[in-house]
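Quick one, T. Sequence first:
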Amino acid sequence: MARPSVRVFHKLEGLFSIYKPPGVHWKLVRDTIETNLLKGINAAPPPAPRQRVQFLAEPTSVVAEGSNELTLSAASVPALAHHPLVSGPEFQHIGVGVGHRLDVFSSGVLVLGVGQSNKALTDLYRSHVTRDYTLEGELGMATDNFSHTGRLIERTTYDHITRDKLERVLAMMQGSNQKALLTYSKVDMSTQGAYELAVKGELRPDGKSPPIMTGLRLLHFQPPHFSLEVQCLNETQRYLCRILHEVGLELRSTAVCKGVRRTRDGPFTIQHALTHQHWTSPDVIQAIRQYRSSRKASKAKHTQPGKDTGTASQRQEMAEEAAVTGDSHRLHSVLTSKAFGS
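Structure tokens:
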């Protein structure tokens, strides 16, 4: 039978997400969680101490008077070599892996894996999952690293910028990235395979590709401040800051990034990310159980036939009609809208 600490460790083998606060390096976050998990594992009740046979001398009162013989008796005593105070904690290191990392400046969802689940963590990010971000920007200035922490190199005016102009620029940028995704997916859009991928929204780059935005929309606009929601693939934090810089240039102005917050990383959302006070073994075990149950429910849902939304049905009818009538331009537009969820 496995020891209690080993059973706790096996329960911790899985994927979970935490909320990384800004201003903290991801290595410090990982080390803090690893320390907390080790404390939880080693706090489990220790196994019963091993017993060993030891021969002990009988008390002198028991030995017969006038006898010079030494009388020994066998006794079972604890083997102190295996006592925690002698050998130390049973678990002194566990492998905690980190998924797509966040720099010190950024905050939000950070996915981690424990033990054997580090392989699943690698497989997850080889599948080209998309991630959602909320970007906070400020118009009227430019820096050497595209963020407000960099060295100021230019100031510009922004009074001419309106919400409509900003939304037109975002639509143009999203359109160019959609074309890039179709190019790097290396899929012939006139084939049945491309149609099925587009229906499922599973168009992804084939192999390595530069960062690609799959969605971009305006959340808030109150000059000089504005907020964007971005969905992307293969991104870096510098790339996200550069998006705001390019938005400013397209608007005949400049802009810097004042905040990056990841709200979704593949199947992990910010609603289920553990905050700092919940970086403990019981909370991590509960988060791993929730993720496993949600994955099982998702797989069961996708295996049920006949599950389709009205919008998907309408798009399929439009695609079939376009294919029958030979309208290739319309078919391409329908597939593109399916691929990007528009």
